[in-house]
Design a protein that fits this description.
2 copies of one chain form a homodimer. Chain A is 24% helix and 20% strand. By secondary structure, chain A is of the alpha/beta class. Chain A folds into 2 domains: 37 residues; 206 residues, Aromatic compound dioxygenase (Protocatechuate 3,4-Dioxygenase, subunit A, Sandwich). In chain A, the strands form 3 sheets. In chain A, strands 1, 2, 5, 11, 12 and 13 form a 6-stranded mixed sheet that branches. The longest helix of chain A has 20 residues. In chain A, helix 1 packs antiparallel against helix 2. In chain A, strand 8 and strand 9 form a beta hairpin. The first copy, chain A, has 6 helices and 13 strands. At the A-B interface, helix 1, helix 2, helix 3, helix 4 and helix 5 of A face helix 1, helix 2, helix 3, helix 4 and helix 5 of B.
Chain lengths: 288, 288
């Protein structure tokens, strides 16, 4: 097309594809260009705004390194990560929710009933549940990768004062599908806001907070791997998670338990006679 | 909103804005999120495709430096740059067209009738025209910044064998609005295709070629600055410019001229008795 205009440019873009292009590549790229073009026309985007957008991407590129990925964070705060999670979830299984950037490889083994908090101090939380299939039947011996923030609001990879494996654990559920462990109740925290994504949040009058949560990756042979989180029902940021991760079925009551009521079969030491909280959270996996 | 779903996520995104957010910031960000969400739902984007998109942006970030901006190139091959140009053009003025990444600062002065090719060899092109307002009246003494590829298809900033100012010139049009100079006819060339944008072109079965052109930035007090290009009507890539820069009013016939017909008043030396080509291209500026 020799005379490209603002009205025909999407058609011209489509006409450039080779005849033997993979149909899915063409579908995704044409949809991407169409939405970029429609966005540009609808907003009557100016040259200054276009340049600002490009400078934003350049800045995100400069600040991204193996420890920090500003593009993932951008996807998170725009709701893209959560939308991809939601539309690839099985509605009969536990909802999936953002993986986030703080998972570490080779987490240490955590036995059923183990203590993930190790030497950290704070309010003890007993986490308990079953891994089940969509019929409600237990799945034996599923692998559960668990991680969370330390009481200071930082994940181990953000905090030079923590061992890289602190508040990370890899558990094999028992024959009945049961998993359980003790930890310190996680706290709400902010996503990194000192880069270009922070500038977007600031311009939008948005806070950078996430409600507190425990992360899970649950896998078992023959089932779709589940990446999810569990949130306490009394968290002040539950209605305004800056990365859009909260779903109804992931919100659980953390039930206060009186002093002296701690059950047997746990590795918890020291605080075993204090009051604590308990959350029950079952993990429902869909077949592959 | 506590229960974010794939259907309400755009509304939740909108609800997060602070009350005193700049209305234009909100308009642009909500439109951006809405189109990203619609794109994701329409294509049923998978986790693998989402990750591939993020890896693409990370790669573009790594390859971008002061000499090469892969995000601008991405904007170019998606048609975004041209669309922003077109919708910010005045329809009564000469169409604007992509600036591209090869303009250099402090171009050397080029007098009216000067020779921009200096010692380079090739087919001589005489470029001639007037700077006019939208009524057709000449604008005296406009500033015209001109640049193009060398005969090897490279701009000076891409080519260690060229002086950084080769094939760049800054002219002041005369009292009658006339500008003219001699050069070597520019050649068609490819955009950089060894990075992530090249991978997109390859996956789409698209070539990386641009039709040959001369770049202009034209400015005069009281008028909107014009960034544009002129293309020859016989270029093989006129219908498939990979950055969508061609507009009808920017395509001109490069008219062959017989040997011995070269006019007076030019600095051209050596080739003055050979055949050459001539293009007439007027530059119409809109009032500010």
């Amino acid at each position: 097309m020799r005379n490209v205009t603002k009205d025909n440019i999407t058609d011209v873009f489509s006409s450039y594809f080779g005849d033997d292009t993979d149909p899915r590549v063409k579908e995704v790229l044409v949809a991407l260009a169409r939405h970029i073009h429609d966005f540009t026309r609808e907003t009557k985007l100016t040259h200054d705004e276009w340049r600002k957008g490009l400078e934003f991407l350049e800045w995100a590129g400069r600040i991204t390194d193996p420890e920090r990925n500003e593009f993932v964070l951008l996807s998170d705060v725009l709701g893209l990560s959560s939308l991809v999670d939601m539309q690839n979830s099985n509605p009969e299984a536990t909802s999936s929710s953002v993986l986030g950037p703080f998972h570490v490889s080779n987490p240490p083994a955590l036995e059923v009933g183990g203590d993930m908090k190790r030497d950290f101090e704070g309010e003890v939380l007993l986490v308990h549940g079953y891994v089940r299939d969509t019929n409600g039947d237990p799945i034996p011996n599923a692998t559960i990768d668990i991680w969370q923030t330390a009481p200071n609001g930082l994940y181990s990879s953000q905090d030079p004062d923590q061992d890289i494996h602190s508040f990370h654990g890899l558990m094999t559920a028992d024959e009945e599908g049961r998993y359980t462990f003790t930890t310190i109740r996680p706290v709400c925290y902010t996503v990194p806001s000192d880069g270009p994504v922070g500038e977007i949040l600031n311009a939008a009058g948005r806070h950078p907070w996430r409600p507190s949560h425990l992360h899970y990756i649950v896998s078992a042979p023959g089932y779709r791997t589940l990446v999810t989180e569990v949130f306490p029902s009394d968290d002040p940021y539950l209605d305004q998670d800056t990365v859009f991760g909260v779903r109804d079925d992931l919100v659980m009551t953390y039930v206060p338990q009186p002093a002296g009521s701690f059950p047997d079969g746990y590795k918890l030491s020291g605080k075993v006679n204090d009051a604590y909280s308990r959350v029950d959270f079952d993990l429902i996996l869909a077949k592959q």
